[in-house]
Design brief:
InterPro entries: 6-blade_b-propeller_TolB-like, Biotin-prot_ligase_N, C2_TIP, Class_I_gatase-like, FG-GAP, Integrin_alpha_N, NHL_repeat, Tip
Subcellular location: Membrane
Transmembrane segments: 1147-1169
Number of strands: 75
Distance between the termini: 125 Å
Largest sheet: 9 strands, mixed
Domain Biotin-protein ligase N-terminal: 397-487
Structural class: mainly beta
CATH topology of the largest domain: Methylamine Dehydrogenase, Chain H
NHL repeats: 321-358
Radius of gyration: 36 Å
CATH class of the largest domain: Mainly Beta
Strand order of the largest sheet: 27-26-28-29-36-35-34-31-32
CATH architecture of the largest domain: 7 Propeller
Strand content: 35-45%
Number of helices: 12
């Protein structure tokens, strides 16, 4: 197939892609004439073979020239280039090349006549040996560039490499960049889409869509890695003009920018509104006047932007989709010659067209002979001059006929064209739906249409071949009517078991009850969307018959979109019209092609696993309310206004403001309480009561300039209503510090690498009193702390007394040490190394994951520097154990450079909480899915390890990735995930921070929807200080975050189905802060399904100079309650204050309801009996009265 497909390659190679650079003079000798202007000569460039610059030979004298930088061959002067000029000096010199150089030295060109004829049959010059990774094969080749010696350089997208083919050698190519597997290393590529040659630097400039970035590689044979020119840009096309400006099309932002080499931001040259608005802008070319031409695929036209223009003009097509000479159909690759003649790859019409300047119609120069295998035909519906990757794409058959609504088939084709070759099928198309046509396709699409009963006769005959097609491995996608037809009443019978389809409007609780066209709200993987709706279907999936994946649900819980296995194939159905575009509706919040693309990825790449349980986390809270905060990067948690509800302290995206967001336990909402503006760049904030007034303060870590090598710090003092202005301190920090109670006096200190001269940093502790630095306690016998690592106060020697955990820098490697507190009497307890052969240690965390009453050290690591081998280790009984977690081949920890700022400077951490309240802490981690490039939150559920469920039990517990949490997994571009009790009901919810290509961050919440009757105990330990100004209110001073408080619970519960198990569970409150560890100022301990009283709760605070045993035990605690402990007086635990708040469990509520109903029934029975007794008494009195009268007679 490839030999036929690449017959059209010759068209690209010899006709259109030679990009003339008038300032270069390749293949010429030194001082050769290179222009029509005889004053211009060729000056060779250092480090390049037979490559030079064509410029004015007499513009300067030898005495005016300066030498180039001897190590880099660069010039500091603007408009100067380093060249050889042996008539002046033996070493390279900086020679002026002014902006008007291309006009002064016009190139010697041979113009192609506007009426030139091309040979109609092509020959293969690269590939042609089937799809593969050998050097004589290609796999979805995209952009290409032809050098002056006819060497073809190809962006081989499917093989993640750049391969070049020498002129005259069509047998084998040579890999010149990449080929080292897909990745983001500087030695790797990820789906390169375009490439060009910079003759001056003799380098390749490559567009990587997968990473996304633009990189440059030297063409020297000893080059092993490239350099990043532009980062965070979703580029598809590249071009370079005669002045070495290069142009990049960004498909995410729908724009084209012009860059100078070394420039990061560029100048916008294409983008905006009106005629400057494009759809699916990819291919571009620049002429000698710096005019930019862009193919506007979905609008079927080519646009031109003259230099400096705000809007473009149509220069080809623009007369709607069609095959007339005035029309184009999906234009892609472009070329512009020196006469201004434009050549266009008219992909869907299978032809190449020529449009002269000002022409109203084009001329077919190659192709136009229909789809076919001939040498004068194109065998791809997506052929392109500059992008040939679609030639290797699978085929999608899209029904177009009387059973489809007007425009629906074409709109779906537009959505899928980048991933499939599109062939329309139907009774009036060249091909109809039958066994033979289905055998050539990977996907069949049945779009929306009219009434089911009216359209069924038109497609009835397709039922049998479609059933066979799907069961033998084919993919079926049905939207609206197509989803109805997947059922049987009537339909193609594609759903296994008792699966069926029916009208959504007839379902209970449907928001729409009529057949009028409208928009319907639904939850696509937990995200509320509004979709065009034309009496769409609801899907009744029989999940017992075959594995299925639910993609979207209506607001009443009915299934709106799903994928289900059927035999070897898969069936995808979407009830509404996700393919509808802006012409169909004027709503901003639409799916557009999101649903289709997500579904197709599932349909092609994966097999659905059978869902055996309901999702725990859902995308909406009670009353279908969403929890979302825009422009909020959470830095700390704490109860700012002392209302017993934990609030959130956010940093804005610009990093110059702290926003206090107050939470509401009655509704999943947050409101802005106060905004504090900072002059500088905020990196983190630590919440604590730093001055002992029982009011929450913030310590801000910031930089005054982004290039500073240290952090500054300052206080925002809180008064429960607002924050003060920033009060900086005179000390600086090498890394983000952490909070701790170093001396056991309830005052919060800061620990880190600290300096008073911004040069010499030492491990030290800042002690505050009266809102100033009272003392600096230097840790003299401690090595320097390891950068971006964990420092914590936590009990790891199991005596309930908090110890100091440090990560030190030992020979540029991390080493862990544990010291006894207080800090004035530090004594080393133990030290140990990370696990063997670890490349990267992420932040440590601490939890009692095996519920044995002892905290364990948990360490996420990468075994190699690209994190392709990601693991989590646990240290127990003085030994490291690798947790037997099956991440699969695709999940891994992201590397820092895969995160947007500021997360590219923050180490990765996992967050711990017992979200299912079974007594065993679970985890959540942000991980990268290598198969699709998404960064998502992965819930890791704590389970007992057995060979049956884990295969290799290296530890007694394992953590199972919850891949069925579809609402959480739908939140892509995740940068942070943390457990948080939004409604203060004791059930840990989940907060996820989503980024975007524009680096706007939104904090969204997912509610913990556990329905079983599980129990918990919530413990909060506050500081010893009381609030003098609020004592008359008789309420505890809530909201003072106290780090390092040890908590241990002991009770009898049901464990693994066995009753009367005595368990112990240890926890630590806020063992560390900083670096977005985001630990909560309380501890939630799950009790499982037992309603028993908690036998013991033991609370211990960090030791001080007077006592090492500041411990208090509380007995017989009511489950589903919160205990708040105020350790005052500090040294007398027996007199510590505490208060208990009870949240009735569902069992108690149900019991109360049952008792109430019983009382009502008994009352009713008694009332009836009393009424009947009264009637009987009345009757008896009447009888007695009549008896009296008879006696009288």
């Amino acid at each position: 197939m490839f030999s036929i497909l690449l017959d059209c390659f010759i068209l690209v190679l010899f006709s259109f892609t030679v990009r003339v650079k008038s300032q270069s003079c390749d293949g010429m000798s030194q001082y050769d004439r290179c222009s029509r202007n005889s004053a211009c000569a060729c000056f060779h460039v250092p480090g390049a073979s037979n490559t030079g610059i064509c410029t004015d030979r007499y513009t300067v004298t030898c005495s005016e020239l300066t030498s180039c930088n001897h190590s880099t061959n660069n010039c500091s002067q603007s408009d100067h280039i380093c060249v050889h000029h042996p008539q002046c000096r033996d070493i390279p010199v900086c020679y002026p090349v002014p902006n008007y150089n291309k006009q002064f030295c016009p190139p010697i060109t041979i113009n192609t006549p506007a009426n030139a004829k091309w040979i109609q049959n092509g020959v293969t010059v690269a590939g042609g040996n089937g799809e593969g990774s050998a050097t004589n094969q290609l796999n979805r080749p995209h952009g290409l560039f032809v050098d002056d010696d006819q060497t073809v350089v190809i962006a081989d997208l499917g093989n993640d490499r750049i391969i070049q083919w020498k002129n005259g050698n069509a047998t084998n190519g040579e890999v010149v960049v990449g080929g080292n597997g897909r990745g983001n290393g500087l030695h790797q590529l990820n789906r390169p889409t375009d490439v060009l040659i910079d003759k001056v630097s003799d380098s390749l400039i490559i567009c990587e869509y997968g990473n996304p970035r633009v990189v440059r590689w030297s063409r020297r044979s000893d080059t092993t890695q490239g350099e990043i020119l532009i980062d965070n840009i979703h580029c598809r096309g590249l071009a370079m003009d005669d002045q070495r400006y290069f142009y990049v099309s960004d498909v995410e932002k729908d724009e084209v920018r012009r860059y100078q080499l070394g420039e990061k931001n560029g100048t916008l040259v294409v983008g905006g509104n009106g005629l400057s608005q494009l759809k699916e802008r990819r291919h571009l070319v620049v002429d000698q006047q710096q005019n930019v031409y862009v193919s506007d695929e979905r609008n079927n036209r080519v646009m031109k932007w003259t230099k400096g223009a705000k809007e473009g003009i149509v220069v080809a097509g623009g007369q709607g989709r069609g095959n007339a000479l005035t029309q184009l159909n999906g234009p892609k690759g472009l070329f512009i010659d020196t006469l201004g003649t434009l050549y266009v790859a008219d992909s869907a019409n299978h032809r190449v067209m020529r449009w002269t300047q000002g022409a109203k119609q084009g001329t077919v120069i190659v192709g136009g002979n229909g789809l076919g295998p001939g040498a004068n035909q194109f065998n791809s519906l997506d052929a392109s001059l500059l992008e040939l990757g679609t030639l290797a794409l699978p085929i999608a058959l899209i029904y177009r006929g009387p059973a489809a609504c007007h425009g629906c088939s074409e709109t779906i084709a537009d959505r899928l064209r980048s991933k499939y070759q599109i062939i329309y099928v139907g009774p009036k198309e060249q091909l109809d739906v039958n066994k033979d046509t289905l055998s050539m396709a990977q996907l069949y699409v049945q779009p929306g249409g009219g009434d089911l009963d009216e359209t069924w006769p038109h497609v009835r005959r397709y039922a049998s071949p479609l059933r066979d097609y799907v069961r033998n491995g084919g993919r079926y996608l049905g939207t609206c009517l197509g989803a109805y037809l997947a059922g049987t009443l009537p339909g193609f019978d594609l759903l296994p078991g008792r699966g069926q389809t029916d009208q959504y409007i007839t379902s209970k609780g449907a928001l729409i009850t009529s057949e009028i066209d409208t928009v319907v709200p639904l939850y696509w993987r937990g995200i509320l969307r509004h979709v065009y709706f034309q009496d769409g279907t609801r899907l009744m999936i029989d999940r017992t018959a075959a594995p299925a994946e639910i993609l979207a649900v209506y607001t009443n819980g009915e299934i709106a979109a799903a994928v289900q296995n059927n035999g070897k194939g898969r069936v995808g159905m979407v009830g509404p019209h996700p393919e509808a575009d802006e012409n169909d509706m004027n709503y901003e919040n639409t799916f557009r092609y999101l649903l289709i693309i997500c579904f197709i990825i599932h349909a092609i790449n994966g097999q659905t696993k059978k869902i055996t349980k309901e999702n725990v986390f859902v995308g909406h809270f009670s009353n279908n309310k969403k929890y979302a905060i825009d422009d909020c990067i959470p830095l700390a948690f704490g109860d700012f206004n002392a209302d017993k509800i934990v609030d959130i302290f956010c940093r804005n995206t610009k990093a110059n403001s702290i926003v206090v967001m107050l939470n509401d336990d009655r509704s999943p909402t947050s409101k802005v309480q106060y905004i504090a503006n900072i002059t500088g760049i905020i990196y983190d904030a630590l919440a604590a009561d730093f001055d002992g007034d029982s009011k929450l303060d913030l310590f801000i870590i910031y930089k005054t300039k982004s290039d500073e090598s240290f952090y500054s710090g300052g206080f925002l003092w809180g008064d429960r209503v607002k924050l003060s202005d920033l009060q900086p301190i005179t000390y600086s920090f090498q890394t983000i510090p952490t909070t701790l109670d170093a001396n056991g006096d309830s005052y919060v200190e800061l620990l880190g690498m600290i300096s008073n001269d911004q040069i010499n940093f030492k491990p030290a502790c800042l002690i505050f009193k009266n809102r100033t630095v009272y003392n600096v306690e230097t840790l003299n016998n401690v090595d320097d702390l390891f950068p971006s690592s964990t420092q914590a106060t936590v009990d790891l020697n199991h005596d309930l007394v908090a110890d100091l955990f440090l990560t030190i820098n030992h020979n540029n490697k991390p080493k862990f040490r544990l010291y006894e507190l207080p800090i004035t009497k530090m004594t080393l307890i133990v030290e140990y190394d990370p696990p063997d052969d670890v490349a990267i240690c992420h932040l440590s965390t601490f939890a009692d994951i095996d519920a044995d009453g002892e905290l364990e050290h948990i360490l996420p690591v990468c075994m190699n520097f690209d994190c392709s081998d990601s693991r989590i280790y646990v240290r127990d009984n003085n030994k490291w154990y690798q947790l037997p977690i099956d991440f699969g081949k695709d999940l891994r920890f992201p590397s820092k450079n895969e995160f947007p700022p500021p997360f590219d400077q923050i180490p990765i951490s996992i967050k711990v909480a017992d979200y299912n309240l079974d007594g065993f802490p679970d985890m959540v981690a942000v991980m990268k899915n290598s198969s699709n490039g998404n960064t998502v939150s992965i819930i890791l559920q704590n389970r007992a390890c057995s060979d049956a469920n884990s295969g290799n039990c290296t530890y007694n517990r394992t953590f199972a990735p919850q891949i069925d949490e579809i609402y959480v997994l739908a939140a892509t571009n995740t940068t942070l995930a943390v457990f948080f009790d939004v409604l203060e009901d004791g059930y840990p919810d989940l907060l996820v921070l989503q980024g975007s290509s524009k680096q706007n961050f939104q904090l969204i919440g997912f509610q913990n929807s556990l329905f079983q009757d599980v129990h918990f105990i919530k413990v909060m330990v506050l500081s010893t200080f009381s609030c003098d100004t609020c004592s008359h209110q008789r309420k505890l001073p809530y909201g003072n975050d106290q780090p390092g408080q040890s908590i241990k619970m002991e009770t009898i519960t049901i464990l693994d189905g066995i009753k009367d198990n005595w368990i112990q569970l240890s926890a630590v409150q806020m063992s560390q802060s900083g670096q977005l560890t985001l630990e909560l100022p309380y501890v939630i301990i799950g009790l499982g399904a037992t309603p028993n009283f908690v036998e013991k709760i033991t609370v211990a605070i960090p030791p001080n100079s007077q006592s090492n045993q500041l411990i208090r035990t509380y007995t017989q605690m009511i489950p589903n309650s919160q205990i708040v402990v105020v350790p005052s007086p500090l040294t007398n635990p027996e007199k510590w204050h505490s208060k208990l708040f009870i949240t009735p469990s569902r069992m108690i509520l149900h019991t109360g309801i049952a008792l109430s109903v019983t009382l009502v029934v008994l009352s009713g029975v008694l009332a009836i009996l009393q009424y009947r007794e009264k009637i009987e008494d009345d009757r008896e009195r009447k009888v007695q009265s009549q008896r009296f009268h008879y006696d009288a007679l």
